[in-house]
Amino acid sequence: MNYKNLEELISVIAKLRAPDGCPWDREQTHQTLRPNMLEEAYEAVDAIDENDMAHLKEELGDVLLQVLLHSQIASEHGDFNIEDVAKELKDKLIHRHPHVFGEVKVKNAQEVKKNWDILKAEEKTERKSVMDGISRSQAALMSAQKISKRAVKVGFEWPNEASLYDCFYSEIEEFKQAKTEQDKEHMEEEFGDILFAAVNLARWNKIDAEQALLKANKKFEKRFRKMEELATKPLNEYSFEEYDKLWKQAKSLC
């Protein structure tokens, strides 16, 4: 396979960052590009959810742009370059796939995942806690899921689903109690516990909490837009009863 375009793209990024390049690109740092990395990744995920391959191709290019920009900036500071990034990834993939590049035999994907975790632990000897290495920048629901799964790996698990429901409802009661105290900080703490318990309930049932909430958001937005279409007067003039009727009408249509 010819990687001519990829090599030319790397040269383009270097040119943009050169003294006679683009003023905006030259001003960027790892820190200023941080929001772009998140935004482009989310837009790529949107394209995946839409199953739009043309859009996905475009958005993957934007993600690649962030990788190349960060690598170019690091190269200018003598930290690493895109070749170093590629080599480290290549070596990691080969090491973590001994069933492909070595003599290890596996029966299924579950055994592959188990071996991956063992090899990863061998690489990350600096990690002392099972909670080490969890990103602090990812979405809160995603982080909660990962924290929960890490705890379960070492046996910290509810005995049954019923106990999970008990935990969930008890957190709601504790939130209600905090509200009677009018303690905003305590209310926030207990509401966080409700969400964490809900994430564990999702995990128990093999539901991705982040994806579930994203779908709920999209569903609500779609129905609300339908309400706006069906409304015969400004929505802020509707009574609760009118709103409820309009919502049910929109719900029946989408």
Tags for this entry?
254 residues
What does this structure look like?
With 254 residues, this protein is mainly alpha-helical. It contains twelve helices and no strands. It has helices at 4-17, 23-27, 30-50, 53-76, 82-95, 98-101, 109-123, 140-153, 161-180, 184-204, 209-230, 240-253. Helix 3 (30-50) packs antiparallel against helix 4 and helix 8 (140-153) packs across helix 10. The protein is extended and about 65 Å long. The chain starts with a helix and ends with a helix. The relative contact order is 0.05. The model has no long low-confidence stretch (mean pLDDT 92).
Summary of the model, kept short:
With 254 residues, the chain is mainly α. It has helices at residues 4-17, 23-27, 30-50, 53-76, 82-95, 98-101, 109-123, 140-153, 161-180, 184-204, 209-230, 240-253.
List low-pLDDT spans: none
Q: Roughly what percent helix?
A: over 70%
**Class of secondary structure makeup:** mainly alpha
What's the main sheet like? none
Distance between the termini: 46 Å
Number of DSSP helices? 12
The chain-level mean pLDDT equals: 92
What is the string of helix and strand elements?
HHHHHHHHHHHH
> What is the rounded Rg?
24 Å
The overall strand count is 0
Hey, roughly how much beta strand do the residues contain?
under 5%
Please state the overall shape, judged from the principal axes of the Cα atoms.
extended
